[in-house]
Amino acid sequence: MTESTPVDWELARALAFAAGQAAAGGAEVIPLGEADGRTLAEPLRALTDLPAFPTSSIDGWAVRGPAPWRPVGRVLAGGTPPPLTADGDCVEIATGAMVPEGATALVRIEDSATGGDGRVTGEPRAVPDWRLPGEEAHRGEELLPAGTAVDPAVIGVAATCGYETLQVRPAPRAALLVFGDELLTAGPPGNGRVRDSLGPQVPSWLRRYGATMGSVTGPVKDTLDAHLDAIRSALDTADLVCTTGGTMHGPVDHLHPALAELGAEYIVNTVAVRPGFPMLLARVPGPAGRPRFLAGLPGNPQSAIIALVTLVAPLLAGLRGRDLPPLPQVTAGTGIAGRGDFTHLALAALDSTGRTATPVGHVGSAMLRGLANSHGFAVVRPGTQAAAGDTIGFLPLPLTPGERP
């Protein structure tokens, strides 16, 4: 079997995203506290007016009519006060409390005084110190559209509205198969064998891209039967199986024959990108007509991560009901070489402003030191090179803010 013509890098990302969109699941209802990181499957709408009742923004007095006012009670947050029925009456009121019906103004405690007769005087401020019903949202109003990424702020909005559950897209289930008899899973490398660095790290990248991580299996023996057994077992429970190594067509590379045996259809088979060659994404027939996916990551560690950000991240975005965001634009801090007809993804660190990207060192296909000192990849399109000061695309890694470099 010969290699296919490499697919343009941007087209490969688009094809992976479209495949994920087409296979996205429906929706599931989960408790509000478990929704962080999910995607809204339906618009979030206000269940009531927000606020639902006139609400005091201050500690002070709710008054009716002109001063002086006679205190007739107190209202705290959480209570339902009786109406103020007579001019000259007032109630002490706390921040967040419901403003009594009949109140004509609120007076801050610091703007008031209480006389010897117990009556209150003071001056309301020009801007009313209460929030009116519907000031933030009206009942039924769409607050956030379907497809919104759920984060703590979204959870807070939903809780404010009174939601206890949210309808969200299912989280894709992922599994990892590590191919290569030469790999060690413990101890330092030596005597012709290298330590597996992808088995420990790829699950974390997959989780950061929104997958629920299942099994990690390997090293899988370098035989076709072992590959088929491992892939079939992983596909029993996973929507996406990532494999490491075996994407070439050498004597111990059994991934392509295994995919043929499984009746898989290539979505992308090799991408015109350096590093990262070769990589693949295939669709595997699944139960009930819903496909499953296999992403073949190269064995070289940095190339494998480039395959992951190129094919797996867009696929997972589609499966999760997310948009594929456009690449941010940054300024090249130094010159970055091109790679001829291939897109060059150059590991780079951002400056403190996040607007200038400078390539890092130790960036060979088999190296990970550069990756550990980077925020993402500077994107140099085919047939071009970047000079210092040029505006270029930047593909960020899903890092926790402030972690590194």
TrEMBL record:
Cross-referenced InterPro entries: MoaB/Mog-like_dom_sf (IPR036425), MoaB/Mog_dom (IPR001453), MoeA-like (IPR038987), MoeA_C_domain_IV (IPR005111), MoeA_C_domain_IV_sf (IPR036688), MoeA_linker/N (IPR005110), MoeA_linker/N_sf (IPR036135)
* Alphabetized UniProt keyword annotations: Magnesium, Metal-binding, Molybdenum, Molybdenum cofactor biosynthesis, Transferase
Pathway assigned to this chain's UniProt record: Cofactor biosynthesis; molybdopterin biosynthesis
An individual GO BP term? Mo-molybdopterin cofactor biosynthetic process
The record's listing under Pfam families reads: MoCF_biosynth, MoeA_C, MoeA_N
**MF (Gene Ontology):** metal ion binding; molybdopterin molybdotransferase activity
Report the EC code(s) recorded for this entry. 2.10.1.1
Name the record gives this protein: Molybdopterin molybdenumtransferase
Q: Which residues form the MoaB/Mog domain?
A: 175-318
Role noted for this protein: Catalyzes the insertion of molybdate into adenylated molybdopterin with the concomitant release of AMP.
SUPFAM superfamilies documented for this protein: MoeA C-terminal domain-like, MoeA N-terminal region -like, Molybdenum cofactor biosynthesis proteins
Instruction: List the GO cellular component terms.
Output: cytosol
State the similarity comment: Belongs to the MoeA family.
Q: Which cofactor does it need?
A: Mg(2+)
Catalytic activity of the protein = adenylyl-molybdopterin + molybdate = Mo-molybdopterin + AMP + H(+)
